[in-house]
Structures are given as C-alpha cells and as structure tokens.
Amino acid sequence: MSRKPFIAGNWKMNMTAASGAKLIAELAPLVKDADCDVALCVPAILIPEMTKAAKGTNIAIGAENVHWADKGAFTGEISAEMLKEYGVKYAIIGHSERRQYFGETDEGVNKRTLAALKNGITPIVCVGETLEERENGLTEKVIARQLEFGLKDVDDIKKVVIAYEPVWAIGTGKTATDEQAQETIAFIRKKIGELFCPMCAQSVIIQYGGSMNAANCKGLMAQPDIDGGLIGGASLKLDFAQIVNYNK
Ligand code: 13P
Predict the structure, then answer these.
(1) What does the pLDDT look like over 19-28, one tens digit per residue?
(2) Selecting from 3.90.770.10, 3.20.20.70, 3.30.200.20, 3.20.20.450, what CATH number does the domain 6-244 have?
(3) Alpha carbon nearest to ligand 1 atom 9, residue
(4) 127 and 146 in contact (C-beta within 8 Å)?
C-alpha cells in the first residue's frame, strides 16, 4: 500500500505575522516541487495572515489545536468551524505540550479529534511516551492507551494522521534512532490494525516528531513505517525545505 509522505511544521508559540509571512515567502519556491504533502501548523492568531501568505503554494496551513464544541462559553478556545472559515486543513491534537502544561487528556483528545473530522479538518493526533515511561518499559502500554481512548468512535481512521512524538526527543536535540522510531511506529500501525482493521492501518499516515532536522530526516524517512515528520524547531527556518525535500 503506498502512502503519500507528509511533512508538517509545528511553529508552537513562535513567529509573528511579519516573520511568518516572510518565512513562507522564502520557503514556497524551495518546496514547490515536493513529492510529499506539506503543511505548517501555526498559532491561531497567525492563521488569517499565513493563509494569505501561502495562497497559490503547495503549503497547507494547519492549526495547533481545536476545541471540541461547535460554539459556546469556552473563553479562549477556537472551534473547527472558525478554523475552516480560513481554509485550515489540519489541526494538531493532543501534543505532549498540551497534555503536560494544559492538562489535556485522552478524552479531550478524542472529542477534539471527532470535532475536527466532523468539520473536514484532518486531525494530526500526537502520541508518545515520556523518558520515565520508556525507561520503565511502558512505551507500548502508554501509546496503546492514547490510541484506544484518543481515537474512540472514529469512523474512518484513514482520515486521521498520527504523529509519534517521544516526549524525551522534543526540543532536546535527542532524536529517537531510526530503529527506535521505526519500532514504535510499527507498533502504532499494528495497534491501529487491532482497533480498526489491518487493511486500514496500512493506509494511515504516521509521522515521527522530535528533533527531526535536515541531517537526520533521510534516515528516519527511509524506515518502512515512517511516513513523514512533525517538525518543531527546524520548521522555523529554511531547514524545513531541506526536510521537505528529503528525497531529492
Ligand atoms: P522539535 O522538532 O523542536 O523537537 O519539536 C517536535 C515537536 O514537538 C513537533 O510537534
């Protein structure tokens, strides 16, 4: 089963409208012949300007989160409908920073995922273990739980992108080795096969995220189950184009 690779950036709480638009203008010609799907997930306030900046390019704009309700008394939150109005194609859901600093749970991840799907936005659902969990041999158990509860009641799993982001590799410069990333991502695919169906699992795009950069992307992308990357720090600069062009 061939899966189209997908490289996405996650700007996190970085960039301004001016610096973001400048970066997109510089990236656009460098990534225009990419063989993979390309997206930049940006802070919500930058979405209108970045959508304009990316117009006519092959860079899709995504959000870094989405609320589960259609509307209502949820101060500070943003609904899928609001995102859709600006042509947002993707929303990162359940990033470990959201889980760690903002108390997001598997149940919330599930509700956000279902809301994104209902509105035609592709959820990029993040899973991954902490260093302590890995050292205690809990990696598979933790990820199985995140998948089971996070993806509950999803009708068409092929419409979901999964990002495997080992927490210990995020922003630390410590990448999972090609083999570690492949091993866990193969486990994720197997688990999706059990939760949904083995055939659909073969179609699901699974990204690796965690200190992925221009130097290590080739090795990671060469792994049979790794279909792309979710790039933090390296998506804030032109290195992102090198990652997108990993196969050139
Ligand atoms: P870094 O690439 O900066 O490690 O961040 C990864 C990440 O969290 C992407 O969502």
Answers:
(1) 999 999 999 9
(2) 3.20.20.70
(3) 232
(4) yes
Residues with C-beta less than 6 Å from any ligand 1 atom: 10, 95, 165, 170-171, 209-212, 230-234
* pLDDT grade for 174, boundaries at 50, 70 and 90: confident
Question: Ligand 1 atom 7: the closest Cα is on which residue?
Answer: 232
Which sequence positions are flagged as catalytic? 95, 165
Break the chain into its structural domains and give their ranges: 6-244
Evaluate if pTM is beyond 0.85. yes
Q: What is the pLDDT of residues 99-148, one digit of tens each?
A: 999 999 999 999 999 999 999 999 999 999 999 999 999 999 999 999 99
